[in-house]
Every structure is written in C-alpha cells, then in structure tokens.
Design brief:
There is one protein chain. This protein is α+β, with helices and mostly antiparallel strands and 131 residues long. It has one domain: Trna Endonuclease, Chain: A, domain 1, CATH 3.40.1350.10. A hairpin with a 2-residue loop joins strand 2 and strand 3.
C-alpha cells in the first residue's frame, strides 16, 4: 500500500483534513513556480507547514484547511502561532546560513468543500510580518 494511503487511514479528522490541505497547497505552489524546500519543518515544538522559494523569495507558509467554514482561515492564525512560525523561521535561516533573500510569511487557505482545485486555494502573500 502506498505511504500516502497509509497516512490517510491514521490520525484524527483534523489531521487528515490538514494533510489534504497541505497536499493541495504544495500542488498549488509548484504550479505557480515555487520550489518546495521543506514540509512540516520542526524546530523544537514549533512547526512550519511549508518552506518554499521562488526567485529570491523565501516563503514560510502556514496552511489552513477548512470545509464549509464561514470564518476566513487566515484569521485563525493566532498571535502565538505567528510567533512560533517566526521563531522557527529564524532558527531555520541561521541553521541553513541563508542570506540575501526576501523573507515572507504567507498563509494558504484551502477550502476542502469546493470540488474544483483552482477555486479551493487562496494564497495570501505577506499575511504577517516579523517584528
């Protein structure tokens, strides 16, 4: 059985929804010229869903998957979550020795309730900034 099939069978509904949203986000990013550097990057207990690059831009991306939810997913990225992403990104940049890049923090909303792929993804560039 393929690894992806096994992943879909284990985990909570929320984890399955999140994994499906991340797969759609990765496909979207690749189709829009991004190169995926990391998925589910961990720095201690802090996680970055996707780290991707396009040209001189290095994007740290939080993916929010929703199904028929009226609240915009990007609004559910709390101050604490933003802080964790920023902290983890700084450690990533130091570890990899990254310099001379434009750093961006994005949110990708994936509406799993929509059947058609291109209607289901909303990429919010510069959704928040490091302070």
């Amino acid at each position: 059985m393929p690894k992806e099939s096994l992943e879909l069978k284990k985990g909570s509904k929320q984890q399955k929804r999140g994994a499906k949203g991340e797969r759609r986000a990765v496909l979207y990013l690749r189709l829009h010229g991004y190169r995926i550097l990391e998925r589910n990057y961990l720095s201690g207990h802090k996680e970055i869903d996707i780290i991707a690059e396009k040209g001189s831009v290095l994007a740290f991306i939080e993916v929010k998957a929703r199904q028929n939810n009226a609240l915009p997913a990007y609004r559910s990225v709390t101050r604490a979550k933003k802080g964790n992403i920023i902290s983890a990104s700084k450690l990533y940049l130091a570890k990899k020795g990254v310099r001379d890049r434009i750093i961006r923090y994005d949110v990708i909303e994936v509406d799993l309730g929509k059947r058609f792929y291109f209607n289901s993804v909303n990429h919010i560039e510069n959704a928040f900034i490091a302070r």
